[in-house]
Every structure is written in C-alpha cells, then in structure tokens.
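Quick one: co-fold with shikimate-3-phosphate.
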Amino acid sequence: MAIVLIGFMGAGKSTISRLLAKNLAQPFIDLDDELEKTLAGSIPDFFAEHGEAAFRKLETATLKQALQAEQIIATGGGIVTSQENRQLLKKEHVIYLKTQPEKLVARIREDQKTIRPLAETKTDHELLALFLARQAWYEEVASIMIETDQRTPAEIAQKIQEEVSRWK
Ligand code: S3P
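Sure, here it is.
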C-alpha cells in the first residue's frame, strides 16, 4: 500500500512527505511535480489555458499511475474533490495533515515559490470557504489525522512514523 499525504494547500504535504521518505528510506513522489513533468509546463499556465476540469483529469491519471508503486505520495490540495480519487485513496494509508485554516491562508499568501491558481483568484474569505467545503472529504478518506499546528515538520514526521510502524 502507498502512504498518501493529503490536506489543504499550505498544509506542508510536500515537505513532510520528503522528510518521511528520507526517514523511512522509501521512494517518494510529489503529484504536482509529476504533473508538471507531464505537462512540460507549469500548473498555473495549464489552469489558465485549459481550466480546472482538465487539470483534475490529469491529476487523477497521475494519481493512478503513482498508486502502482508502494511509495510515499504527496498530493495536491484538491485531490479529494473527485469521487473517483476518494475511492482510490480509501484503499491506501492516507494521512490527513490538519492545520488551522487561518494559518493555511497566511502560509499560502506568504509562499513566494508556489503559485496556486485557485488561491490567486480568491479572497482570504473565499479560500476559507474552499477549505470548509473540502474538510469533510479530507476526513472521509483519511486513515489517520495529524494536527500540525503545534508541531515542527520533524515532529510531524516522527508522529507519522509511529503510526506507520503500527500498520506493518
Ligand atoms: C490545488 C492545490 C495545489 C495544486 C493546484 C490545485 C487545489 O497543490 O495541485 O494548484 O485545488 O487545492 P498544493 O496543495 O500542493 O498547493
């Protein structure tokens, strides 16, 4: 089974997955990076040209491909919006990184490196609403939930490792 990290934009999925993969000496894949390789371009450009629905189709195809291997997978925050994805994820070990929504919005706004098309076009209030609309889906597919607010990335990875050791 794969270990899949889910959560809203800015939850730290990529950072924690990378750390976890290093600690567990397991392969790691970031779906957004994979998508950009497939597109040979950036996610914001793809959104601008083809729209969200086309992005979601590619995202599902990339997820399916990634699930072929037993590896640690960092997902994009919108992975749970598709019912097909949710069904796929329910068969895996899924870790939901739960973070206070206000903190997520602040991190998204501060992040100079990652341009997130869905965040660019939204006010803070609309972003919070998007989080609330997805929250139940994150919880629905999660095998475990880790509260990230009071923890460093190293502590979060450690906590996940404790859980993972119970699965084996
Ligand atoms: C999205 C989140 C992004 C990326 C795309 C759409 C979303 O990934 O997949 O911009 O719908 O929440 P991160 O969660 O890694 O920012």
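If it helps, Strands lie at 3-6, 28-30, 72-74, 93-98, 144-147.
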